[in-house]
Automatic annotation (TrEMBL):
Protein name per Swiss-Prot or TrEMBL: Serine hydrolase
Cited InterPro entries: AmpC-like, Beta-lactam-related, Beta-lactam/transpept-like
Pfam families, per the entry: Beta-lactamase
UniProtKB keywords: Hydrolase
PANTHER family: BETA-LACTAMASE-RELATED DOMAIN-CONTAINING PROTEIN, D-ALANYL-D-ALANINE-CARBOXYPEPTIDASE/ENDOPEPTIDASE AMPH
Membrane-spanning ranges: none
Residue stretches making up the Beta-lactamase-related domain: 42-342
Gene3D superfamilies per UniProt: DD-peptidase/beta-lactamase superfamily (3.40.710.10)
GO molecular function list: hydrolase activity
Amino acid sequence: MNTNKLIAAILLLFFFGQRTEAQIHSKNYEKKIDSLILTGFGNKGEPGGVFMISRKGKTVYRKAFGKANLELDVNMTPDHVFQIGSMTKQFTAVAILMLEQQGKLKVTDPVSQYIKEYPGGDKISIHHLLTHTSGIKDFTKMKSLSTIAQKEMKPEAMVDFFKNEPVDFAPGEKFDYNNSGYVILGYIIELVSGDTYEHFIKKNIFDKAGMAHSYYASDRKVIPGRAYGYHQKEHGFVNKTVISFSVPFSSGSLMSTADDMLKWQKALNQNILLNPEETQKAYQKYTLNSGEEFTYGYGWHLKDINGIPDREHGGSIFGFKSMGVYIPSEDIYVTGFSNCDCHSPTEITRNIAKATLDEVRTTVKKP
């Protein structure tokens, strides 16, 4: 075989390989994903959602369902911007690790090192806040929350709102999902960086990752491509309850798109934001004081799908729900957003990830 023929053969093999990879996601696969989504997002006249799947950084499925705005009869598109609720915690956790990487704090530091008067702050570490093991009262469970829900709250005032509440348990004794801990983390980010949480996230994460359509939430700013949020009542749909985003703050006040969340995942994978050592801290399981392991890292639940480890997190805030699942071994990332808190994308997103994992593994096994 002469040189030209050899090159042609190699190129043919290369392109055949590329084509096979692209064909992993067949028409039957697409129909299966459609059917999974339509179980909860099948009514075109209702608020809807966006679902996206990527494999090895390439988008293989990206579709919108239902309406982005009922009053204006605007169809949802994959480009619409959603409030992502508690998926915000991923960004807060990474921001803390960025500050640790810069030598400005350590996750082992006590809260009292930054917030001098915090009750019991010498026993509660940043690590406890990140892993929901602090025992601090979750402000979302406080009856008095309604008194501040629509007030503009400074981070210090938010911390003051719950800091004197009785603790639920001693630090490190239990895992109990907690929004207050992530509000304190946002306040620490501001104290250590000398910047606002909003600007720190934009400058150090959104801008670096190329997330041009991600924001700190606002009901007053004009946000291009905003999907409007809804509740469902007995008589039909109503606009979402208005709250001050300074209340959920760094525990749940960010907005994004499906495409931007893929950029986020790529930035994490490529160590654009953190070095591998700091990144690993977010993705590892930790233990309680008893030595018992729990399935949460820093900003991610660490679970599995059919025995295959995944990282996932959802979000819920008035008018919106969100979910993201990442399977590291196959580089599969699935996101699901809803603009009605009546439609949850959580199980649908997990089922899509499972179906995609099955499809990839079945196709790879074929001769």
